Every structure is written in structure tokens, then in C-alpha cells.
Amino acid sequence: MTGVKRLCMKLKAAGWSKHILMLILTLGICLVLFNNYNEQNLIYSVSTNIITNVYSAELNKVNAIPRSSKKYVKVEFSGRLGNLMFEYASLYGIAKHHNITPIVDEGCKLRTFFKISAVSVKPLLNLKRYVEKKGNVYEENAFKLDTKYNWTLKGYFQSWKYFIDNSREIRKEFQFKENVQIEATKQFQEIIKSKNITNVNKHTFIAVHVRRGDFVNNQYFVNFGYSSANESYINNAMTKFRSQFSNAFFIFSSDDIAWCKNHFNESNIAFINKKNSPEVDMAIMSHCNHTIVTTGSYGWWTAWLIGGTTIYFKDFPRKGSKLDKIFDSTTYNLPSWIAM
């Protein structure tokens, strides 16, 4: 019996060992499968995160506002109409030379009477400033701006050399708005009608702008060298035009029209008598064919808009004055204009 018991016990033990072994093997397999599952899960999670992050980055690139490389230049406007026109024309020419965009402030006066194209933008960052060294002299450095920056120009920039390459565009910029042009045309017709001129094609009209005012009455300006053309110069210029055109007719505009009437009273002369705004007077004179310029930027731009033949006063500024030492007539008056 004892042997039988031992055999049974061995068989029983072996049976249990088999079960234990099977259990251990089963647990091992489960552990391997579990670890493999976690590893796959981790790989999937990491892969998903990478894909998600790449997608998000691409989406952000699409949605992000690109940083503009466009650069701008503006000018600090100063002075009256003639000065403003020089400043804008030079701004335009300098901008086009550098292939950057000219802009103006919202309150730019020129917008009220010219069809200028320059727009306004929000305040500029990354801004540098170019300051003109002295007026009435062309400065080549204005054409050497670093285009990595936005720029503000400070000065009068009174030289044709800043915008001569853009003359055609400037003429478009300085087209008078309809309300100004309509009023000017109306007054021009009234002027010639008052002189019994019925056919404008039978006459050659010469605008005569006489600048006196502060150039005569402001002692600081006089001492500095500003001067007004005298009667003799105007008579000589008129005589030259009469020698060229037998049907010459002169239209005077001035800040001292009484002085003009006291010195010039021939039958082929008329005066702009109304107290117009400067732009309306300029638009009236732009109906003429040629120009006699005394002094000042207003007369300069009147002549430029008219085209044709221009005679200018060669004795400006007063010789030996402070202004004379810094003034360069060759870069101020156009080469085609006639000095007298």
C-alpha cells in the first residue's frame, strides 16, 4: 500500500506541476503580449503626436499673417502750394528710384485739389529720417537710401532732378480735381470774353506770375537774399513773346495785383481779379501756352504745368546774399527755360 500511495503522490505532484507550469507559461505569454501592446500603443501615440504637431505647424503657417517686405517713404510737408508740390514730386521721384512706395498723411492738403495717387498707411515701424542739408540745392544722397528701412524725408527738395525721370507720372499726379478745373475754366472764359476774344485758337496766351508780398515786405527775407522781379524784366520778357507771337495775350496773376495794374495796362493784358484760392489761380493759368516767371516756387510750378516756353528772372536771388551762396540755379530752373 505504501508503494501505491507514493506512486499516487508522485503522479499527483506531477499533475500539479504540469498545471503550475502551464500557468507560468500562460502568464509569460500574457506578459509578452501586454508589453507588445503597450509598445505598439506608444509608437502609435508618438506617431500621432508627430503628425498632429506637423499638421498644426503647417496650419499655423497658412493662418499666420506674413511679415511684409514692402517699404515706404513719406515727406514732412511744409509751406504753401508751390513748396508742397516740390515736396510731393520729389517724394514720388525718390520713391520710384528706390522701388519703394510713396505715402502721405491722411491730412495731406494736396489731396483736396489734385488727383494724387499716394495713399496713407498706419504709423511706420523700422523708420529712418533723411534731412535735407540746405534748401534749393539738389542732394545726390537722397537717391542713396537704405531700402531695408522705411523713410521720412525732411526738407523742401526744390530741384527738378529729383523727379525728372518721372515727369509723365507727375503730370498725372498734378491733375486738378473736377471742382477746381470747372471753376478755373469758367473764370478763364470770363477773362477772355471781357477782352472780346471769341476764338482762343487765334491767340497765344502767356501766363505772367508776379511774386511780391513777403519777398518785398518781409525784411528778414529781403536781407537773406529773396527778391522780386522788377518792371523792366517783365517788360523785356513780354517784348520777347510779342516778337515771336503777333497774337500774344498776357494774363497776370499776383499777390499784389494792384502793383501789376499800375505798371502794365496794354490792351492785350488781363488780370485775375478775384480772390481765388491758390490752386484755382494756378488752374486758370494752366490754360495758357507759355509762362513768364518772376520768383518763387508757385510760379515755377505754374510754368511746369503749362509747358511751352518759360522765361525766368535770372537775378534771383540777390547777388552776394546768404541765399545766393547756397542757391544753385542749374538744378532749380529747368535747362530748357530761358534766363532773362
Automatic annotation (TrEMBL):
Its EC number is 2.4.1.-. Its main location: Golgi. InterPro entries: Glyco_trans_11 (IPR002516). One of its GO terms (molecular function) is galactoside 2-alpha-L-fucosyltransferase activity. It is found in: Golgi apparatus, Golgi stack membrane. It is a single-pass type II membrane protein. The lineage of its organism: Eukaryota, Metazoa, Spiralia, Lophotrochozoa, Mollusca. GO terms for biological process: carbohydrate metabolic process. The keyword Transmembrane applies. This is L-Fucosyltransferase. The chain crosses the membrane at residues 20-37. GO terms for cellular component: Golgi cisterna membrane. Pathway: Protein modification; protein glycosylation. It is an enzyme of class 2 (transferase). Keywords: Glycoprotein, Glycosyltransferase, Golgi apparatus, Membrane, Signal-anchor, Transferase, Transmembrane, Transmembrane helix. It comes from the Eukaryota. Pfam families: Glyco_transf_11 (PF01531). Belongs to the glycosyltransferase 11 family.
